[in-house]
Design a protein that fits this description.
By secondary structure, the chain is α+β, with helices and mostly antiparallel strands. It has two domains: about 180 residues, Chloramphenicol acetyltransferase-like domain (Chloramphenicol Acetyltransferase, 2-Layer Sandwich), CATH 3.30.559.10; about 260 residues, Nonribosomal peptide synthetase, condensation domain (Chloramphenicol Acetyltransferase). The chain is built from twelve helices and 15 strands. Strands 5-6-7-2-13-12 form a six-stranded mixed sheet. The radius of gyration is 22 Å and the shape is globular. The chain starts with a strand and ends with a helix.
Length: about 475
């Protein structure tokens, strides 16, 4: 058993029927490389054999009475793999859009909190004989880099599977009664005020340093709650639904643009997304005169943390520079903005994201989130950021699941009140894969943004050619 971290606890208590805090991976597989036919039963047994390398799959969330302390993970004594594995066929014509629609429907369904917080769906009926695996998991269990760590244990580097499965020395925990959980919380309840003071001090110090850096000319870094409001920042009445689309560009093209402008891969990705969002808003006649802001989470793990799956992130806030028309000018401005953001973040000396939610007890966080939605404050207060782009560095070589090659890896992200457009970016086998998650009621034509990303690649390649010849 183990206690959740402050950030994991945040995602646990942000979870609601309106905005469930789980993500979903869409793993598109080509069975033609497999030595044997890829079946539902075979996929399930493959996962069963890899369970020793997948600790979150057998951990069950147990909340403390009255929310007096952080929840705990218990090794679930009632774990049943069959309760997590499902079988479904995608509707005709079985293309990417049909698969994305199915994934969005599966992703909108809440997870059962009386079981480990994940599900796996084996999907047949895709065009070209492909199959897909939909892996849904709560954000309290895992962040993006933790997800890639998990995928590395589910997949192999060659079509032939590993000869020997890992030894399974897993032992279930005894689930505690509510009284035992309450008694166990007493030490943390006594020291909680001191931890809150430490977090408050860190938050105050970070905010003061951030304000000082800004007063000294922090440059073009974006700031929370400072973006203009656009349609995908509206608040949906009733229960919102997510939709999903994806795009792919060649990594060689990204590197060509990166080298021409002295940028990073993340800078180029932001520019591709910026151009797509700008075109989308122009078409809807709602492009603001000010730049949109973007939350850009970065990984805080180092190489010594292999096997750790919990959330370890820090939020950066560059500008998307959507007010600029010229692609080259827009990318150059993004390069400056991300540099300013990194310097401003380094100057704080603390992780404001963790400090903010280390101040209050978990149960208080729960009540704050409920009040934020029910009171209408979500509609009155500007969104923290207009949108989110999270960047994951995936494997540069193909991966195989029971011999079937992984051809595509797309991610449906959790959404938030007021932030209805989120992009997950992942490099994989020579490509840069963009997964665009939107709130369907606000952005029904999400594929236009995905197609805009691919179109913007052409614009940036032209700008890179002009840059080299100048």
């Amino acid at each position: 058993m183990r206690e959740l971290s402050p950030v994991d606890t945040l995602f646990c208590f942000m979870d609601s029927p309106r905005y469930p805090m789980h993500g979903l991976g869409v793993l598109v597989l080509d069975p033609s490389t497999a030595p044997e036919p890829l079946t539902y039963a075979g996929a399930r047994e493959h996962v069963r054999a890899r369970l020793p390398s997948l600790p979150p799959f057998r951990r069950r969330l147990v909340e403390r009475p009255f929310g007096v302390d952080r929840p705990m993970w218990f090794e679930d004594p009632e774990f049943d793999l069959d309760a997590h594995f499902h079988h479904v066929a995608v509707p005709e014509p079985g293309d990417d859009r049909a698969l994305a629609t199915l994934a969005a429907e599966v992703g909108d369904r809440p997870l059962d909190r009386d079981r480990p917080l994940w599900e796996c769906w084996f999907v047949e009926g895709l065009e070209g004989g492909r199959v897909a695996v939909l892996l849904k998991m709560h954000h309290a269990c895992i962040d993006g880099m933790g997800g890639l760590e998990m995928i590395s244990h589910l997949f192999d580097l060659e079509p032939e599977a590993r000869p020997e499965p890992p030894v399974d020395d897993w032992e279930p925990d005894r689930l505690m009664s509510q009284w035992e959980l309450l008694v166990r919380s007493i030490p943390n309840m006594l020291t909680g005020p001191f931890r809150s003071l430490r977090s408050a001090a860190g938050l105050a110090t970070g905010m003061a340093r951030s304000r000082l850096a800004r007063s000294r000319g922090a440059g073009e870094a974006g700031h929370a709650f400072a973006g203009p409001k656009v349609s995908f920042n509206e608040i949906v009445r009733g229960r919102p639904h997510r939709n999903l689309a994806w795009a792919s560009v060649d990594m060689s093209d990204v590197k060509t643009v990166r080298n021409a402008f002295g940028a990073t891969v993340n800078d180029v990705a932001l520019a591709l997304y910026s151009g797509a969002v700008r075109s989308y808003l122009l078409e809807r006649d709602e492009l603001p005169s000010r730049s949109l802001t973007v939350a850009n989470p970065v990984n805080l793990r180092d190489q010594t943390e292999e096997g750790q799956y919990e959330n370890r992130v820090k939020i950066m806030g560059p500008l998307l520079e959507t007010h600029l028309d010229d692609p080259a000018e827009r990318l150059s401005a993004i390069v400056r903005s991300t540099g300013d953001t990194k310097r401003a973040s380094a100057s704080t000396g603390t992780n404001l994201f963790e400090d903010l939610f280390g101040i209050t007890m978990p149960g208080v966080v729960d009540q704050i989130m409920n009040l934020y939605t029910a009171s209408g404050l979500a509609g009155a207060i500007p969104a923290p950021y207009n949108t989110v782009l999270t960047n994951l560095h995936g494997p540069p070589v193909p991966l195989y699941f029971t011999g079937a090659r992984l051809d595509g890896f797309y991610i449906q992200m959790p959404a938030f009140e007021g932030v209805g457009l989120i992009v997950a970016l992942m490099s994989y086998a020579g490509r840069l894969l963009f997964s665009v998650t939107a709130t369907r009621e606000l952005t029904p034509d999400v594929w236009k943004i995905a197609e805009g990303i691919e179109a913007e690649m052409g614009h940036l390649l032209g700008a890179a050619a002009s840059q080299r010849s100048a």
